[in-house]
Amino acid sequence: MSKKSVFFVSLASFLILASCTEEKKTLVQTKTSGSAIDSATVVTSKTFGEAFNFIIISDWGRNGIKIQQDVANQMARTSDSIDAEFIATCGDNFQINGVASAQDPLWMLNFENVYKENSLHIDWYPVLGNHDYKGSTQAQIDYSGISRRWRMPDRYYSFAKQINDSVSARFIFIDTPQLINKYRNNPDEYPDAAKQNNGKELAWVKTILANSQEQWKIVFGHHPVYSASMKHGNTDEMITSVKPLLEKHNAQFYFCGHDHDFQHLHEKGGKVEYMVTGTGSGTRASSTNELSVFSKSEPGFTVISLKADSLNVCFVDTTGNIIYRFGRVYR
Fold it and tell me: What's the rounded Cα separation, in Å, for the pair 88 and 129?
């Protein structure tokens, strides 16, 4: 090779290295109170070591279409690999018009026959989305009496889990459609929304957050507080009524769907990481705004790993690849 050729190869290598270094540096700087973590390629039992792991999926109910089944298949492989404790859903469990009853055939078509692998026969903790409110929302609560894995005791509920001898987590599942005027003011399309006492729910959320003694406070709902999506974006009622409670009472994470992409948003000076994971059966174009830390349109689901005082979030695609990874401590 000529000296000239060697020079250009060396120069190209230097530029690539510099570019990668700068990209990583920028990534670290945008993670606010969290920390950047070098990503593995695929989530396995070795990714986190000994940890409390679970999966989040949202906007998943599309009657077994290919993308939904692809996501379900990878969820099964990942759940088996990481020994997932449970699956949380962030709503739109039945994507178009909800279900008519706890005996609706859609339960088999959309849920039982899609998420059929043994590793997915663990507890599922759902919340309701706007599409669920087009049908019978009570039917989804009632199905808890039929299915051993569908655990939905009410429209909003909470439980705690011990992570290790000294660390525990509070998981809070809220019902966002009843908090939003668009649905409450449209009884023909969303018959159950206006029937709910939204003030009662907000008082409950405040009480649960204020009285929680667990180190981790993790909240799940369907509608975003913040979102950069061009389809839905920020939810005014969530910013007004829910965000102040999350911030005041030191919730670390809010997970949601509604917008069909992966997003991580963080408000400057804020305490909460806002995560969108609405990619369970389809996607829309992704976008960013001034709060965006990460955004990508890709079918998949989210893996959460709690270990000692740290929590890791992984956005995972249908091949099991980690497309984004974020971690922070509760202190």
Answer: 13
